[in-house]
Amino acid sequence: MRKKMMKLAALAMSAVMALSLAACGGGSGSGTSGGSGDGAQGDEADWTWERKVTLVCPWGVGGGADGTLRPLQPLLEEELGVPVEIVNVEGAGGANGVNYAYKQPADGYTYMLGTQSLIMLDLQKILPMDFKAEFIPVSKLVHSILIVGSSAKAMEGKYTNFDEFIEYAKNHPQELSCGMLTATGADSVAMKQTLAGGLGCDVTEVENYVKIVSYSSGSEMSSAMAGGHIHISISGVDEVKGLIDSGDIVPLISLSEERMSTYPEIECTGEKGIDSYIGTWRGIFCRTDTPAAAVKAMDEAIKKAWESPDYQEFLKNAVYLDREGYQTGSEFQNLIDQEYTTFEDYLKGAGLM
Q: Contact 269/194 with Cβ under 8 angstroms?
């Protein structure tokens, strides 16, 4: 009888210990028990980085998007304590890279750089998945100010500033040319909003005044600008800063509420009452079902890397400090939602959607 009582007591003690372990998460320690399908794994769980982290860049090496990640990579490695690899998967305007990231396990070790281009692809149903449903923002890195620049060669004898460009375009329809990378990209939306605001016409009527010339890459378009083959183009200041400093490109107007601190002499759309403020942002995304503990840990690491003196120096040199750069995923989501509305209205109004 005594042996039987002792056996029952031992079994009861084992049950209590098992319940205690279960309440503590089974002693996993890494918080990798798996996502809940909506990235809502318990935020209180700690995340331990155990192996290499991959950052997918859906565009080529050396471009503006890739250039945002390169200075971040070694700083993230220091924060995470594991290797960080940048994988460039270019093609199809970014769709190939998104598809590649989507096919990787949502285990907390794969992240992707994103820009407005992905919103445009999603709205036009070009991506092989529902981007809004399958990806969530982790952190915003940069939000640049776009400028409309003019070829110094091509503008000679025609105009010297934005107002004169607009006046010349009104009086000489289709004589002036505008370089663009794609008719359905965020840059195209920004350019047409700016020109329409100046011309006093609808975005669908801009091409009645200014001839659009398409280019396959930013470097090709910059070369055409420097050579005087087109009159104007739109880009981030970081992309053409060298050509501005050399005098090959003359900035006409910045797409911002206020003038830039780096180039205070450049007029802005805000002071002219033109509702055109789209600027290129770049941020980190991941699959929606990525463990929430990993997303939280990655955001915290990005914030520390972003605030480091080395990354701040990069931001300063690339003229990224005139607008708020780093944002948490939830703050970033607000901006994304706003731009989904802006771009959808543009695509519908232009008959492209």
A: yes
pLDDT band at 45 (very low <50, low <70, confident <90, very high): low
- Among the four given CATH numbers 3.90.480.10, 1.20.1270.10, 3.40.190.10, 3.40.1350.10, the one describing domain 146-272: 3.40.190.10
* pTM score: 0.79
Q: Which two tokens stand for residue 61?
A: 């090496």
- H/E run at residue 57: strand 53-57
Q: Quote the CA–CA distance of 303 and 23 in Å, as a whole number.
A: 31
Identify the residue with better confidence: 160 or 117: 160
- What lies within 8 Å, CB to CB, of 344 at 6+ separation is 123, 353
Contact predicate 328/137, CB 8 Å: no
Answer yes or no: are the C-beta atoms of 94 and 181 closer than 8 Å. Answer: no
Domain ranges for the chain, please list them. Answer: 53-144+280-349, 146-272
Q: Which two tokens stand for residue 157?
A: 């004898």
What distance in Å separates the CA atoms of residue 16 and residue 88, rounded to the nearest whole number?
A: 51
> What is the pLDDT, as a whole number, of residue 236?
84
| One fold for 53-144+280-349 and 146-272 | yes
Q: For the chain, what percent of residues have pLDDT higher than 70?
A: 87
Q: Give the separation between CA 111 and CA 230, rounded to whole angstroms.
A: 38
- Between strands 146-151 and 232-236, the pairing is antiparallel
**Tokens representing 108?**
């907390």
Would you mind telling me the total number of residues written for the chain in this entry?
353
CATH superfamily for domain 53-144+280-349? Bordetella uptake gene, domain 1 (3.40.190.150)
User: Could you tell me the end-to-end alpha-carbon distance of the chain, in angstroms, rounded to an integer?
Assistant: 81
pLDDT of residue 73: 98
Which helix (H) or strand (E) element contains residue 135? strand 135-143
